[in-house]
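Per reviewer request, we include the raw input and output of the structure prediction for the construct analysed in the revised manuscript.
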Amino acid sequence: MKHARLIFAGLLIAGLFVGVPSASAHTPICNCYDNGDETITCEGGFSDGGSAEGVPIRVLDLRDRVLIDGKMETDSTYSFTKPDEEFHVVFDAGESHIVTIYAEDIE
């Protein structure tokens, strides 16, 4: 009986670790600001403090056509000339790590 309890306890403990998500998970963060000179600057990163260097960033029109295609710089920023039409910005750090910022939310 004691042997069975040890096996059960071991399986229970092992089962707890199998379904636990990684503690190093991070959430993407991106904010864009109107510089007041017809340019927009976006700053990106991750909730764990990780850099956004190289993360693709796209400026799309209302039909999701690419107006501007770029990547975050070494300082995790990306600046672009403000389009004349309605637009939104997509910070794309991969599946489940996409942030969309609409023009009306940029101050």
